[in-house]
Amino acid sequence: MARIIAIANQKGGVGKTTTAINLGASLAVAEARVLVVDMDPQGNATSGVGVEDREERATIYDVLVEGVPLEEATVKGLHFPHLDFVPSSQDLVGAEIELVGAESREGVLRRHLAPARDRYDYVLVDCPPSLGLLTLNTLVAADSVLIPIQCEFYALEGLSQLLNTIRLVQRELNPGLEIEGVLLTMYDRRLNLSRQVADEAREYFGGRVFQAMIPRNVRLAEAPSFGQPIVHYDVLSAGAQSYLALARELAAQGGTGGAEGSGGPAPGEKAEAAAKAASDGGGR
Length: 284
Ligand SMILES: Nc1ncnc2c1ncn2[C@@H]1O[C@H](COP(=O)(O)OP(=O)(O)OP(=O)(O)O)[C@@H](O)[C@H]1O
Ligand SMILES: [Mg+2]
What we know:
Helices cover 40% and strands 12% of the residues. By secondary structure, the chain is of the alpha/beta class.
């Protein structure tokens, strides 16, 4: 039974796509059956894994808007036998509008992903940098949310908005939605700032911050231009090793949501704390 994980943060450039591709590939290397879905009209994950001739392929747009079965839009065995992928296309920009009239328009992805639950161990969905209908569809379809946070100034700013959206979805549309964890990305241990962001994140999210941290690593930034996941491009790089560590941690967590399992505070309490932190101006 697949665990569906939304990789979301409405802030741009925090490492959502890098995480979707490389966590997906790292899990697949460990022989978990993985599906990565690109829900971003920018299509960065699609080009980053080297899926080409997008015009000729069925994409997630065709699935959501035209009702094409998910399997028809799935590229199988991409780089690794256990890694499947559903590409995106620019048409997806229009999906936000085209879905407005659809019946329960925020549940469209959930309906299409239902048959995939039996075929995969993990479904990772790369969200666009907004809290619009595409992200909403993903949160409604998901069992949990993985939130990448870039270790930079203002890292926690805007998180209260995301956490409020998650709470709203929990209340109205998907009561089972958990916070899978907060992932610190582009961490530079030489910088005080990185350490400060890590400390603040741990203060607000406690055990929900993954032990694995993703360092700033040039090989991670290079890999997408070769259309390759990092474990393929340079498995010995610090970037690859950190995503492999994250995959191990996630697998060990086994769907309890939060690195401390069910022992940690409820997502709602965490959301309160983070929202308060952001409104106190502590967002960094
Ligand atoms: N750990 C890292 N080290 C170095 N560069 C990184 C790292 N993670 C991501 N990058 C680079 O930073 C940029 C933004 O990363 P990415 O595309 O994963 O973010 P995103 O949150 O998906 O962005 P968007 O919000 O636009 O979808 C990319 O150029 C990527 O290659
Ligand atoms: Mg992205």
